[in-house]
Write a structure and sequence with these properties.
This protein has 490 residues and is mainly α. Helices cover 47% and strands 10% of the residues. It has 15 helices and ten strands. A three-stranded mixed sheet has the order 8-1-9. A three-stranded antiparallel sheet has the order 3-2-10, with no helix packed on it. It has a two-stranded antiparallel sheet with strand order 4-5. A hairpin with a 2-residue loop joins strand 2 and strand 3. Helix 7 runs antiparallel to helix 8, helix 7 packs antiparallel against helix 15 and helix 9 runs antiparallel to helix 10.
Length: 490
């Protein structure tokens, strides 16, 4: 079947999908045609048919919603990809080059429509390319040709006009089109009920914890905290020969963090490709900055053994690179597709982790008896303040959850107050115990075993609390989703 022919593009135009909601009968022929054309498995479908429902009995209405890639004007999958695996062609189609993909799945976080899908077999993501071979031949995509009611179509769109007014891309069961300037034109029936929503609307389940990223973020923040504390103690007059252990420990934490991050990739052997898109990808910037930070930490650690090497300057450079890396790491999560992450609370939490565990870990790695009480006391106070900041951050999240009417914030609130409530309680208890132990350490001689024992206890409890907090960060986020079937996931 050749399918319908396409209208040629004029200057400033690109191709886009159209979908007439009332014409769709929910036969799923588009899904089947897409899978046959592109060889996609059921769990990796590029086009999906969801369901919408609304109204009050007996005046209820129910429709189907067929969505594939929207080939957005500003595709966040493209701008966020660290390897430049995505390309927006002159005709507007956003294509994914599998050979360049390392399987980091960051595009899946960036896309509010959940278009890219990860293949656990091939270890890469894939997505709809509007049946590019057919488009190049002047034919419509397979889904268009297979639709028995002509609910799906392809047409040219004037990009400049659409950028100015894209309200036709908004519909029940879809994220706001403004996030990526989706180009799919959705034709809605007249008189839709105001409560029209996805048929699979139900309480969310916890997301994947992403353990390699938990380890990466926590250990890089610990490493930065230790390097910063060591450098400040050196500036404060601490003897260099008695501070080297902390610098070496910071380096070890950073190296382990980078190693752990490889387990998050589908293709870890190609990890170096992740620095290709420094221009727009915060993931590329994170990788480059943490690589630089590790190198500077190594040089700073080596400087303790090499007289005459400007160790103080190296330490300062490491602090700057590490702080920039943590900032880039936090910016990774400021994506509109996941509103609870897209907040100043995220960078605040990351830097608070740095201050909560780094200084205490440093004090346990050095000879405190050789230091003046003032600098040691100052580091303990910094750790207490950072722990208090984490408590405030949690309270701000709770306030935002209560005040926001969005499904995403409501879902996070439900998770934190329901299935995850015991971990939330442990996180709060850990912060309180940490503050108590650090406060008690201030009341005894820092060089004595009592202070050391209390600070060691505080570090263990604080680290456990930060681990739980970071786990909650990943599993409690509720992303935007496209409407699914009543018996489908969430």
């Amino acid at each position: 079947m050749s399918g319908p022919s396409l209208l040629p593009l004029q200057a400033g135009e690109q191709y886009r999908f159209t979908f007439a909601v009332e014409a769709c009968v929910g036969c799923h022929s588009c899904e089947v045609a897409c899978a046959e054309q592109n060889g996609t498995p059921v769990e990796g479908a590029w086009r999906r048919v969801g369901e919408l429902e609304g109204g009050t009995y007996p005046h209820t209405r129910r429709f189907s919603l067929s969505i594939a890639c929207n080939h957005c004007v500003e595709p966040t999958c493209l701008s966020g990809c660290p390897t430049n695996a995505y390309e927006k062609l002159a005709n507007g189609i956003v294509v994914h080059h599998e050979a360049e993909c390392v399987g980091c799945q960051y595009c899946m976080w960036n896309c509010p429509y959940e278009v890219p899908v990860f293949s656990p077999v091939r270890k890469v993501v894939s997505k709809c390319d509007m049946c590019r071979p057919r488009i190049d031949a002047g034919q419509a995509p397979a889904c268009v040709g297979a639709c028995p009611t002509q609910a799906i179509g392809v047409e040219p769109v004037d990009v400049a006009r659409w950028r100015a007014d894209h309200h036709e891309a908004d519909a029940p069961g879809l994220p706001p089109a403004s996030i990526t300037l989706s180009t799919t034109r959705v034709v809605l029936p007249a008189g839709l009920p105001e409560d029209m929503a996805a048929a699979n609307e139900r309480p969310p389940s916890p997301e994947h914890p992403h353990w390699p990223l938990v380890v990466l973020t926590l250990l890089t923040q610990l490493s930065l905290g230790m390097v910063t504390a060591t450098w400040l103690l050196e500036l404060g007059g601490g003897e260099r020969g008695r501070l080297g252990g902390a610098a070496v420990a910071a380096l070890a934490a950073g190296v382990i963090a980078l190693g752990a991050s490889l387990f998050h990739l589908g293709r870890p052997a190609r990890a170096l490709k992740a620095v290709r898109n420094l221009r727009t990808s915060w993931l590329s910037r994170e990788v480059a900055l943490f690589g630089l930070f590790s190198a500077l930490c190594g040089a700073y650690s080596a400087s303790w053994l090499l007289p005459g090497v400007p160790g103080t300057a190296l330490g300062g450079a490491a602090v700057v690179a590490g702080a920039a890396g943590v900032w880039a790491s936090a910016r990774l999560y400021l994506v509109p597709a996941r509103p609870v992450w897209d907040s100043p609370r995220t960078p605040a939490a990351f830097f608070a982790t740095t201050g909560a565990v780094g200084p205490v870990a440093t004090l346990l790695c050095i000879d405190r008896a050789a230091l003046a009480a003032g600098p040691v006391r100052a580091l303990v106070v910094v750790a207490m303040a950072a722990t208090a900041c984490q408590v405030v951050n949690g309270l701000l999240l709770r306030r935002s959850v209560r005040r926001s009417a969005s499904r995403q914030y409501a879902g996070t609130g439900w998770l934190l107050a329901g299935p995850l409530r015991h971990l939330v309680l442990w996180r709060a208890v850990a912060a309180g115990v940490t503050l108590a132990l650090l406060a008690s350490a201030l009341a005894v001689p820092f060089a004595g075993p009592a202070a050391g024992g209390r600070m060691a206890g505080a570090l263990v409890v604080a680290a456990a609390g930060e681990l739980v907090g970071r786990y909650l960060f990943y599993v409690s986020v509720v992303p935007y989703r496209v409407a699914g079937g009543f018996f489908g996931p969430r």
